[in-house]
Amino acid sequence: MGLSTKYLVFLGVFVMLLFPVYASEFDYNKYRGNTELQNDFASYMNNLQTKIQRNWNPPDFVEDGDATVMFKVTRWGKIVSAEFVKSSNNEVFDESAMEALRKSEPFDKFPATTTKEALTIKYNFHTSIVKTDTMREYVDSADKCYNGNNQQEALKYINLAIDEVQGDIESYFLYEKRSKIKKALGDIKGANEDYAESRRLKEKYDLKRINTCKLIAEMEHTPFSYFYLAHAYEIAGDYEHALDAIDKAIELTELNNQYKRYRSELVQKKGP
Question: CA-CA-CA-CA torsion for 171, 172, 173, 179, nearest 10 degrees?
């Protein structure tokens, strides 16, 4: 379902300070030495993580998305509160995390062996457009060399990164990086060729994203799915269809201030 490789890291469970701490609530991390409690919730936590991951559709245009949500779940699997303790600073990414929780509810009931009535979970959502650890190493090395004014070494590493993905349209940004490096080296012809290739791959990827988002919106018919579709159109420069999509998102929910604000931004970008 996701438009890009998904990385979701479970950080642990603990009592949130914004809520009173009752005897029926507990800090999962504090009981790591308690084999009985760990055994009680081991399967529950695995199932919870799997369900959230399956329902998470992160935006693929965020280079390094990272957000942490704290949510409180009752023994019957209902979420009674959720808030960000760390924002990604990208509204689509953050909303995708909340949407994953909404779609995952209700969670499993607590194990019958526990008397706990609620627990609070701290969950980290993370994605990267860099596909592999090897590619990440090459890109980081290229960036470090480029910023250190060692362009020849930067070119070597970015070439290795490009070889790693072999023309994958999702890695269009690598050609843009190489274009900047070649320009710094005085290779204007090569820089222009790489920039053109990055635009060509990006256009193909933008179209792929739009088609995927349209399919998801048609299937799910949720405010977030149309919000995401609007962003997909915006990235491609299609403001008319972006406005159509965000209007559908606004129609589907009364909690639409965020969507209305985004619509105003689209109108300004579209111009007269």
Answer: 130
